[in-house]
Amino acid sequence: MSESDIADLKIGDFVYLEGTMYTARDASHAKMIDLLDRKKSLPFDIKGQSIYYMGPTPAPANLACGSAGPTTSSRMDQYTPRLLAEGLKVMIGKGDRSDDVKNSIEKHAAIYFGTIGGAGAYLGKSISKMTCIAFGDLGAEAVYKLTVKDFPAIVLLK
Questions:
Q1: Which segments within the chain are labelled E, that is strand?
Q2: Cα separations (Å) of 96 from 57, 64, 101?
Q3: Domain region containing 59
Q4: DSSP class of 98
């Protein structure tokens, strides 16, 4: 999302996202911060990108992804300010964020969307393509590149 897209949204707005997003949970966040600390490249260019806090379940034969419900976002709070400083613009998950994350979202003109907890099978149908791009040894906590269409979300913070 561009900064102008983000600027046009208000807290409480309901949107349908489409395009590319990446998944990352606790373990993959820790690995990404370790890469940054060692002056290494991240597995994807984080500038302007979206991270969905989700670990997919295996896909049934007719879908790209199985259940794709959000995980609790606060588990990523210790890593989020650093990723926002590196250019991350969009986070998608569920639940509240720390004051440090809230301040970083505002400082970096980013946005935090919430999506529907408990509706992972429904959300999985919005994913048309899913590819593991990093940390495959982490299984569901690996980084996946997703292509989504009509992915429902609500603006929680900006």
A1: 14-23, 50-52, 90-93, 111-114, 127-134, 143-157
A2: 24, 29, 10
A3: 3-157
A4: -
pLDDT digits (tens, 9 = 90+) for 18-63: 999 999 999 999 999 999 999 999 999 999 999 999 999 999 999 9
CA–CA gap between residue 37 and residue 155 (Å, rounded): 31
Instruction: Provide the CATH number for the domain around residue 105.
Output: 3.20.130.10
Taking the whole predicted model, whether its pTM rises above 0.90 is answered as yes
Q: How many domains does the chain have?
A: 1
What DSSP string describes 110-139?
-EEEE--TT-HHHHHTTEEEEEEEE-GGGG
Residues β-bridged to residue 129: 147
Separation CA 16–CA 1 (nearest Å): 13
